[in-house]
Design goal:
One of its GO terms (cellular component) is cytosol. The chain is an alpha/beta fold. It has helices at 15-26, 43-47, 59-71, 85-96, 111-124, 146-161, 224-233; strands at residues 5-10, 30-36, 52-55, 75-78, 102-105, 129-136, 181-183, 186-192, 198-206, 209-217, 239-242. The strands form 2 sheets. The chain has a 6-stranded parallel beta sheet, sandwiched between helices. Strands 7-8-6-9-10 form a 5-stranded mixed beta sheet. Strand 1 (5-10), helix 1 and strand 2 (30-36) form a beta-alpha-beta unit. The chain binds 1,4-dihydronicotinamide adenine dinucleotide and ligand LZUJQKHR.
Length: 252
């Protein structure tokens, strides 16, 4: 029998952290050895004998948490948002000094969401227009969502590789924000609404037709298979993996 994966959850009292604590506790090949929140001493992770860290904290804390894990030889599965190009580049160079450590940064752990983003990237080169609408609960502190940013990056790369020009847009005057934010040339619109959890639509338009790719997370349980897959895989994938699609066979 292979050794238990000894997991410390950071952000354990949060909406996602609490769900991860439950999922890890129920997994027969894992042991929850530490649950930390704001203000807790990260040394507790080492004292507890963790081999893996799950970070589900806040954008302002995640970088220091992951740095601590890497510097102490622990693998990290990260769901927290805020990992822009500069932060990922810094982490990548830190990991060069710790070649045995794996880190997964997953903007979205839900399998359906990962697939929808991949489908969107495949479809985007065949349509003149593409825009993204992400819809979340009103307690979310960041906009646009990490998932929308990642989807926009994948869509933009696919269109650039295929030589597709920018989506047509004749807007000359607008109120601030009317056209949303722009990520790699793709317009992203953020809705915050009581009752929602996490949802996204990619709208693709061509002459006389529209394709809509929508994914809905109705419950945070939807993210847990991805968290567990990340924990089971990350030690075998040294270095930085950005996106759970890196651990899946998506045939691209
Ligand atoms: N990758 C994915 O599939 C998903 C990612 N998320 C992301 O995960 C993060 C957490 O989301 P929620 O659970 O909804 O937020 P939340 O606000 O409910 O939980 C965050 C928790 O982190 C704690 N915290 C603050 N500073 C900390 C520190 N230095 N160390 C450890 N814990 C600290 C807070 O006290 C809070 O309990 C967000 O960035 C969110 O966008 C959320 C859902 C799915
Ligand atoms: O804060 C959330 O809730 C979510 N955050 C992630 C994101 O920003 O994409 C993942 C999911 O959308 C839920």
């Amino acid at each position: 029998m292979s050794a238990q994966i000894k997991v410390a959850v950071l952000g354990a009292a949060g909406r996602m952290g609490a769900e991860a604590v439950k999922a890890v506790s129920e997994a027969s090949d894992m042991e929850l050895v530490a649950s930390l929140g704001r203000g807790d001493d990260l040394a507790q992770i080492l004292e507890a004998g963790a081999t893996h860290v799950v970070d589900l904290s806040v954008p302002a804390a995640t970088e220091a948490n992951v740095r601590f894990a890497v510097e102490n030889g622990l693998h990290a599965v990260v769901g927290t948002t805020g990992w822009d190009d500069d932060r990922r580049a810094e982490l990548d160079s830190l990991l060069k000094g710790h070649p045995e450590v794996g880190v997964l940064i997953a903007p979205n752990f839900a399998l359906g969401s990962v697939l929808a983003s991949a489908f969107a990237a495949t479809a985007a080169k065949y349509f003149e227009s593409v825009e993204i609408i992400e819809l979340h609960h009103p307690n979310k502190v960041d906009a646009p969502s990490g998932t929308a940013v990642r989807t926009a990056e994948l869509v933009a790369k696919s269109r650039e590789d295929a030589g597709v020009p920018a989506s047509p847009d004749a807007t000359e005057t607008q109120l601030d924000g009317a056209r949303g934010s722009v990520v790699d040339g793709i317009h992203v619109h953020s809705v915050r609404l009581r009752g929602l959890v996490a949802h996204q639509e990619v709208l693709l338009g061509g002459p006389g037709e529209q394709l809509t790719l929508r994914h809905d997370s109705f419950d945070r349980a939807s993210f847990m298979p991805g968290v567990l897959l990340g924990l089971r895989t990350v030690a075998c994938r040294p270095g930085l993996t950005y996106g759970l699609d890196g651990y899946l066979e998506l045939g691209q």
